[in-house]
Amino acid sequence: MLKILSTLIIFSDYIAFYAALVLAYLFGSIPWALVIGKVFYKTDIRNYGSGNLGGTNAGRVLGKKAGVIVILLDALKAFFTVVLCRWYVPEASIYAGMLCCIGHCFPIFAHFKGGKAVATCFGYLIAISLFVTHHFFWMAIVPLISFFVLLYFSKMVSLSSIGSLGVATITAYFFSESLSVFASVALLWVFVVWRHRANIERIRKGEEKKITWM
Hints:
The protein is mainly alpha-helical. It has helices at 2-28, 32-41, 55-62, 64-88, 93-105, 118-133, 136-154, 157-175, 179-195, 197-205.
């Protein structure tokens, strides 16, 4: 009887773990840029600007206020994913946060065409730094500062995003005691670089769009 009970407990843990991953992906798939554009502006931003379902394109198409709201909501997706997992399925926290970021890029609710996960990755970094590594300054604040420093000098959101997540990977290497955390941040950085491959080509050609508000 004890053996059966222990087997059931282990089985239920596996179910909880994989259920958390699936729910994280679905939560990440919520396309806030599309929702806000259609509900409040009667606009499908996929038909304008870069067509990207992210905060930058939302700001470009719908205005600065909408862009900021989308960025915050996209970041909160990963933040709350990690927080909820820490409460209920702690062993899934790191992987669920990653899947939330992937869900943002390939949302099932928007034909698998989403954003580039920069804001979502930062939400993930904030949550991981607060509740897993406890190095909030080095793993969240420093990358965020580096983003705005790079943005100030380059005026390019894409370059600043790639560079700041590269900084996050470096700080994760030095300040995370968990190999899984470092690996997750490094993989997300590689993923974000890959998502920006068209931007990188435009940067190389000197054709990347630059912001005008800084």
